[in-house]
Amino acid sequence: MMKNLLAGIALVTTTLFAHSQTPGWIHVASSQSGDLVLEARAGSFDVRKNGAKEEIAVISGKAIRGNTNSRIDLEKWYVRTSDCVAKQGKVVTLTLDGEFKFDSDFIFDAGSIASGKAEFICSVFEYSKAEKRSKSL
């Protein structure tokens, strides 16, 4: 069942967001200059609790810095699900081990990299909620 949900999420996110040049990755956002590109790993979405016991939507991604792919940082990004509902808040960036790197403010439709990252994560979260509701009695 979880595989079907993840497959559905991957399908929906690929229709909502542009496909990456790399198989298994989905373009999330990029800077106007093109020197920063964010991509999410298809199938890596999860809902869990952070250290403060808040429900979060989390996904694995990569930040490609430099116009010639000179540096790639592998990361995890999350948004509190309550921030998804509010359409504003913080998007948190972690190492793959879950160590805090930094957070950024976002507001939906603001046009910033952080907003694009949060909108992507929250759209997958909303899809996963709708998928669960559709299977309930």
| Average of the residue pLDDT scores | 87
Q: What value does the Rg take, in angstroms?
A: 14 Å
Number of DSSP E strands: 7
- How much helix is in the residues? 25-40%
How would a textbook summarize the main sheet?
Answer: 7 strands, antiparallel
Which consecutive residue ranges, at least 5 long each, have pLDDT under 50?
1-17
- SS summary, helix count: 3
Element string (H = helix, E = strand): HEEEEEHEEH
Beta strand %: 35-45%
Shape: globular
Distance between the ends: 16 Å
Class computed from helices, strands and strand pairing = alpha+beta
**Assembly context of the chains:** single chain
Key terms:
7-stranded antiparallel β-sheet, disordered N terminus, 137 residues, 7 strands, 3 helices
Describe the structure.
The chain is an alpha+beta fold. Helix content is 31%, strand content 38%. The protein contains 3 helices and 7 strands; from the N terminus they run αβββββαββα. Strands 1, 2, 3, 4, 5, 6 and 7 form a 7-stranded antiparallel sheet that branches. Helix 1 packs across helix 3. The N terminus is likely disordered.
List the helices and strands and how they pair.
Layout lengths: L1 H15 L8 E6 L5 E6 L4 E4 L5 E11 L5 E10 H6 L1 E7 L5 E8 L5 H22 L3
Antiparallel strand pairs: 1-2, 2-4, 3-4, 4-5, 5-6, 6-7
Helix pairs in contact: 1-3
Q: Would you summarize the structure shown here?
A:
The protein has 137 residues and is an alpha+beta fold.
